[in-house]
């Protein structure tokens, strides 16, 4: 007696499997996210490790040098951003009130709003004084501030960073062990060759994408820092570093940077016009990067559907928060490469690809 899972039953089984996988990825995000990030870093730095190995440098030594370099970069970012970002987080409520107040003044309704608020406050004070004798003892629990929340989450972030660096070191130091095991489990020579081709293609495309994006974001960070410094913004280097980091998140990172630069400028600059100029310059620089530089340097080799990128960023943000947004496009690149090599997934690859000729056919 044979049975098959076709029709509605098969679709239900697939749906349940997908939901179970998503639940597992969400629940185990504290472990899964650092592992995937380590694999992506290993894909980026495996070609330099092999290049050094061919010139006589042992892979453990090159892996240690790469990981130490990453540690220095992370430490530099943490030291450079700690003071200004901590100040922004601690002053976020006050900044929001000041921004709201200045924007209200522009519409000419601030006086009426303040008068109404004072009347409400006076009425509330009279009512409170009347009921004070009969009021029960009230216990007020002070809420933790945003800086306290960040401090409480810092040990987990540090632990995950250390885990990522250690795992990246061991993956890089193992050299071609993964490829040797991949070849060993394939049943015949054709499958072995195809598996190695897919693995190297994924490595090449992901490393190329991340390398180009890193260089582009570094240029954007320098441009933002210099431009905002010339406009008289406080902590221009911090804004440059934030522009570099946030631009790894497509679309959302640039929008957050524009809003943050406008809010800080509105508080620290003399007029609203100055704040608009600061935000406009930030927006102009990110627009040039997103519409000209990145398509010219990356788009010629890698074409992805813009709508799919937005959906991927939103999906991985929902699943893994900020780190999900950062890893969304590299994961999409990996999926796109896999679809090119697997016949059953080629329709999916066509959907993922953006406009223009296929790089492999040009």
Terminal CA distance: 52 Å
The averaged pLDDT comes out at 79
Q: How do the helices and strands follow one another from N- to C-terminus?
A: HHHHHHHHHHHHH
Uncertain runs: none
List how many beta strands DSSP finds: 0
Q: Counting H and I runs of at least 4 residues, what is the number of helices?
A: 13
**What share of the residues does DSSP label as strand, in percent?**
under 5%
Helix content: over 70%
Structural class: mainly alpha
Radius of gyration: 26 Å
The biggest beta sheet reads: none
Q: Outline, from the CA principal axes? A: globular
Secondary-structure blueprint of this entry?
Elements: H1 7-27, H2 29-53, H3 59-90, H4 92-107, H5 110-131, H6 146-173, H7 177-185, H8 189-230, H9 236-246, H10 252-268, H11 272-297, H12 306-341, H13 346-352
Features:
362 residues, mainly alpha, 13 helices
Characterize the structure shown.
The longest helix is centred in the middle third of the chain and has 42 residues, at 189-230. It contains 13 helices and no strands. Among the domains are: 29-106 and 153-175, no CATH class; 208-301; 303-354, no CATH class. It is mainly alpha-helical. The protein is globular and about 80 Å long.
């Amino acid at each position: 007696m044979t049975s098959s899972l076709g029709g509605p039953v098969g679709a239900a089984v697939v749906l349940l499997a997908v939901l179970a996988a998503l639940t597992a990825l969400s629940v185990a995000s504290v472990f899964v996210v650092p592992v995937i990030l380590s694999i992506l870093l290993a894909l980026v730095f495996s070609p330099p490790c092999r290049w050094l190995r061919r010139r006589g440098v042992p892979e453990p030594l090159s892996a240690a040098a790469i990981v130490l370099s990453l540690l220095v970069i992370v430490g530099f970012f943490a030291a450079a951003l700690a003071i200004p970002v901590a100040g922004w987080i601690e002053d976020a409520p006050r900044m929001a009130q000041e921004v709201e107040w200045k924007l209200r003044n522009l519409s000419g309704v601030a006086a009426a709003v303040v008068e109404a608020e004072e009347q409400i406050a006076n009425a509330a004070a009279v009512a409170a004084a009347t009921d004070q004798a009969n009021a029960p003892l009230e216990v007020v629990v002070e809420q933790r501030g945003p800086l306290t929340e960040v401090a409480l989450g810092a040990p987990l972030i540090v632990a995950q960073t250390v885990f990522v660096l250690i795992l990246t070191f061991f993956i890089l130091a193992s050299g071609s062990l993964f490829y040797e095991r991949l070849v060993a489990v394939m049943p015949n020579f054709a499958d072995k060759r195809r598996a190695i081709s897919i693995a190297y293609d994924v490595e090449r495309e992901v490393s190329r994408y991340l390398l180009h994006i890193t260089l582009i974001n570094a240029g954007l960070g320098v441009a933002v820092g210099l431009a905002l410094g010339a406009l008289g913004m406080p902590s221009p280097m911090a804004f440059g570093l934030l522009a570099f980091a946030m631009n790894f998140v497509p679309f959302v990172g640039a929008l957050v940077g524009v809003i943050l630069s406008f809010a800080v400028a509105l508080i620290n600059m003399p007029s609203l016009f100055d704040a608009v100029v600061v935000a406009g310059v930030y927006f102009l620089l990110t627009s040039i990067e997103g519409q000209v530089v990145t398509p010219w340097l990356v788009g010629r080799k890698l074409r992805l559907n813009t709508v799919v990128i937005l959906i991927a960023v939103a999906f991985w943000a929902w699943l893994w928060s900020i780190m999900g947004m950062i890893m969304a496009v590299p994961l999409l690149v990996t999926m796109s490469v896999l679809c090119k090599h697997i016949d059953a997934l080629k329709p999916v690859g066509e959907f993922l690809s953006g406009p223009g000729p296929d790089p492999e056919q040009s």
